[in-house]
Amino acid sequence: MTTWTEFTAAAPRIAEIFTRRHAATSNLCMLATIRADGSPRISPMEPRVFEGEMWLVGMPDTTKFRDLARDPRFCLHTATVDTQVTDGDAKVWGVVRDVQDTELQQRFAAHLFEDIGLDLRGQEFHPFYAADLTGASSVEIVDDRLEITIWKPGEPERVVQKT
Question: Residue 73 is part of a domain; what is its CATH number?
């Protein structure tokens, strides 16, 4: 599995597009999970990058977190507001792991408070999901061509062009 830091080193083009689009939408992404009956679920999510990991943290006991507890596979897609994709678009996928480390959670809460003013300091996080990435892709319009960049762990990014 691959951490966010490892991903950004291995797939800089996709990471740059994901980071840019993530920031442009106030950190909003769409999270795909798998329901108990096997059908997909799409939910809004504001993933955070902290201490080299991407974290999927939010209100406990929601359907998306019940989905991840049952089946840790996910896909996270940057929120698309431009149907022409002029600023690019990206997604990452993988599996989550629940990290129950109180000191780490408190550092995360302090960082969240400093960054956006949300005060969760002193609270426990159940779950506290780190994203282990198993793939990613992005799309961009370059010189009137669609360029699709694809990455898998252990391989370099590769670009497919469509006219």
Answer: 2.30.110.10
Q: pTM for this one?
A: 0.92
Strands (E), the chain: 29-34, 40-45, 48-50, 53-56, 73-78, 89-98, 129-142, 145-151, 158-162
Q: Which of 62, 64, 60, 47 is nearest to 112 (CA)?
A: 47
Q: Count of domains in the chain? A: 1
Please give the residue range of the domain that contains residue 153: 4-162
What letter represents residue 60's amino acid? P
What is the residue-level pLDDT of the chain in tens, covering all 163 positions?
A: 799 999 999 999 999 999 999 999 889 999 999 999 999 999 999 999 999 999 999 888 899 999 999 999 999 999 877 777 778 999 999 999 999 999 999 999 999 999 999 899 988 899 999 999 999 999 999 888 999 999 999 999 999 998 7
Cα 62 to Cα 48: distance, rounded to the nearest angstrom: 18
Scored b (16 or more CB within 10 A) or e, 123-140 reads eebebbbbbbbbbbbbbb
